[in-house]
């Protein structure tokens, strides 16, 4: 009986302590979104999709990981917009390997791997490659990505 009581007492103290530690660790974690919001460096990249994440939460273009954002932070929604060149909204299902896209977003450096990661704010599906001198014909492509 004493042994059971001791385990229950330890469990009653340990579990809340573990949950409290996990909760505060999650609050203190500065992920890519937090870093991008703090140190926003606008970036634009064009290319064919080389890979789509299994959860469709990222794509790879020119060997750079592009994170698709869909979250709420401090009561504000952050979501990657996927559109065609006419501005029509598309779903993540429109992103597939081999499709040509133009991505505007913010760049961050992954603290663990030191790799460049782009958080996509806007993704445009393109019917063909757009040369640099032709981008001026698309005002929404030539303007840099603003902060969320």
Which labels suit this protein?
148 residues; alpha+beta; OB fold (Dihydrolipoamide Acetyltransferase, E2P); 2 domains; 5-stranded mixed barrel; two-stranded antiparallel sheet; 8 strands; 26% helix; 34% strand
List the helices and strands and how they pair.
Elements: H1 2-28, H2 32-38, E1 42-52, E2 58-61, E3 64-68, E4 70-73, E5 76-79, E6 81-83, E7 100-109, E8 116-125, H3 139-142
Parallel strand pairs: 3-8, 6-8
Antiparallel strand pairs: 1-2, 1-7, 2-3, 4-5, 7-8
Give a short summary of the structure:
With 148 residues, this protein is an alpha+beta fold. It has three helices and eight strands; from the N terminus they run ααββββββββα. The chain folds into two domains: 29 residues; 111 residues, OB fold (Dihydrolipoamide Acetyltransferase, E2P) (Beta Barrel), CATH 2.40.50.
Shape, principal axes of CA atoms? globular
Measured as a percent range, the helix fraction is 25-40%
Number of domain units: 2
**Second-tier CATH architecture of the largest domain:** Beta Barrel
Taking all Cα atoms into account, the compactness measure Rg is 21 Å
Strand count, sense and barrel status of the largest sheet are: 5 strands, mixed, barrel
Q: Spatial order of the strands in the main sheet?
A: 1-2-3-8-7
Order of helices and strands: HHEEEEEEEEH
Top CATH class of the largest domain: Mainly Beta
The residue ranges in which pLDDT falls below 50 over 5 or more consecutive positions are 21-30
**Number of alpha- plus pi-helical segments:** 3
Strand content: 25-35%
End-to-end distance, in Å?
59 Å
What would the average pLDDT be, to the nearest integer?
81
CATH topology name of the largest domain, in short, is OB fold (Dihydrolipoamide Acetyltransferase, E2P)
- Within CATH, the superfamily of the largest domain carries the name Nucleic acid-binding proteins
